[in-house]
């Protein structure tokens, strides 16, 4: 490693040129990486609702069905809009009341089944079902939806899962560059104030920017990433890996006092820092990799990309940053200034003077914070993840308020079941509490009418390949206890007629999301804690230190989530899992840094004095790292309109600050109080000064 470090120190321009050249394939890979805007597509394939979704798509081509609502529009104008939609490339059919009846018939005179499905209770609004042509290829439905939106006037609205996906795409594509720009600007401002040179933040940012582009470019090999990963990956990588750069630069400043040339000093800094950086980054990598074990494949998407980002962060710090520092060192020195990090000496003296009290408070906070955070209110519906001004959200509100349609379930049964039995099942489904309307073959045309005289649109929607489709509209919002009970009752009814039937749709799929994420949270929480516990045990060769350090960060996580409960804030279904893994992996470094410094100072001073020195030395790095992490994630929170991303960044920003204060206020006193016990359970804990080397 020393020879490599010395070579790169002597050829900084060559190294930087190679790093820049590698950006070319990275940028190409980034441009060619697809983005998945449909969170529900990450659910495991073995869920019955997802299997039903596949049948729905392959057999009926209805998985991406959309609903267009018109308000206070004369039938002839609604019909004209329908015909315009039919001309859009990718649209297979549009089903409206005119498919089955003459539009000249007043709405009040229509059969109840048509009136209940296609008209609102007051008759001022009507809706049509839009199906898309699978022959158009992947993404053709989103292109069609984007074009249909341009046809809608102020009295027309649109809803459906595919419309939500398209709205998500639009808002991500328009706002993602803004997220990154604001996060970078705020991080740059914080670094400029806390570092000792106005120019140094630009050096750090250049190195981190290269690492981010390498990471995003290599996502090409994954095929696609989720929109959540696209929105937060760069920001998280910036916040998580920034302190590695600071560590190397500080080490270089120390080594310059011991070597005659800059090149030798940098080579020594890289060589001596590599093991420490690699070890420190492992905790963060393990935290992210724990997400990969989620049953919800979104976890692998976020976890793998972020773990890869940490690896690229370390590699650029070791192989690229030294060259940048050596090239621009004159500018760094020229623009030196004092750091504006506050002095916490009085706080440290106070906490250590009352160390037993702070240690007791730490222990007393564990149980209530753990119990409170378990009651966090989670939402699973994408209707709560996006802003209300979007087309899909306005359409959803119209369906819910005017048509009593909060969500639609699709029931797929065997067409060979006798018509009388199917009508009996339809009647039971219609009589269920919360069912507002039902669209089915027999309820529309009756069993006596031959299939060959029916409109193709109805046959394509209701009967295909020996299967029959029912659309059951519910008054209950997705992912609510009421809908859960309704789905359970629906399953009992449907399975009694056809044990192989499928129930799918937004409500059924999001119920699968609830069940899946509940399991994922438990699994990832255990895995992340276990992995980091083992790593700390290996690093310190201790049984007690992993317990103390992991508990300190777990307390910070529980306090973070508990604040959401106390403030009555909802969190998205991914927040507890992601926060538990990322906050643990990213901020346990603070605890490790303080503990390492404390052990070093114990060689020269009694434990109280040793901790005062350790806190003073570690606090600058901890405060700086936490502040940058806070600034980057808080910046996204301020400008982001996607609530699922905004909420996650708010928790991460708050978590960085809480972790910092827990380490300084509680962990430092706790380590001093427990130092005697730690020494007994940790070999070589108290090393004599002469063994320092």
- Relevant CATH superfamily of the largest domain: Multidrug efflux transporter AcrB transmembrane domain
Gross CATH architecture of the largest domain: Up-down Bundle
Number of strands: 13
Shape by Cα distribution: elongated
Tell me the major beta sheet.
5 strands, antiparallel
Number of self-contained structural domains: 4
Strand portion: 5-15%
Q: Helix content range of the residues, please? A: 55-70%
Top CATH class of the largest domain: Mainly Alpha
Query: Helix/strand/pairing class, anyone?
Result: alpha+beta
Average pLDDT score: 87
Number of helical segments with 4 or more residues: 26
Distance between the termini: 19 Å
In the CATH hierarchy, the third-tier topology of the largest domain is known as: Multidrug efflux transporter AcrB transmembrane fold
Sequence stretches where pLDDT stays below 50 over 5 or more residues: 689-693
Description:
- The strands form 4 sheets. Strands 8, 9, 10, 11 and 12 form a 5-stranded antiparallel β-sheet that branches.
- The protein has helices at 2-10, 12-32, 48-60, 75-86, 112-118, 140-151, 161-194, 200-217, 227-255, 262-289, 298-319, 321-327, 329-334, 345-353, 355-373, 391-402, 419-430, 441-445, 456-462, 481-497, 506-540, 544-566, 575-601, 607-639, 643-673, 675-681; strands at 34-36, 66-71, 91-95, 125-132, 156-159, 224-226, 378-379, 407-414, 435-439, 463-464, 467-474, 502-505, 571-572.
- The model is unreliable at 689-693 (pLDDT under 50).
- With 693 residues, the protein is an alpha+beta fold.
- The radius of gyration is 30 Å and the shape is elongated.
- The chain is 66% helix and 9% strand.
- It contains 26 helices and 13 strands.
- Helix 2 (12-32) crosses helix 12 (321-327).
- It folds into 4 domains: 1-32 and 172-339, Multidrug efflux transporter AcrB transmembrane fold (Up-down Bundle); 66-159, Alpha-Beta Plaits, CATH 3.30.70; 341-375 and 541-693, Multidrug efflux transporter AcrB transmembrane fold (Up-down Bundle), CATH 1.20.1640; 392-500, Ribosomal protein S6/Translation elongation factor EF1B (Alpha-Beta Plaits), CATH 3.30.70.
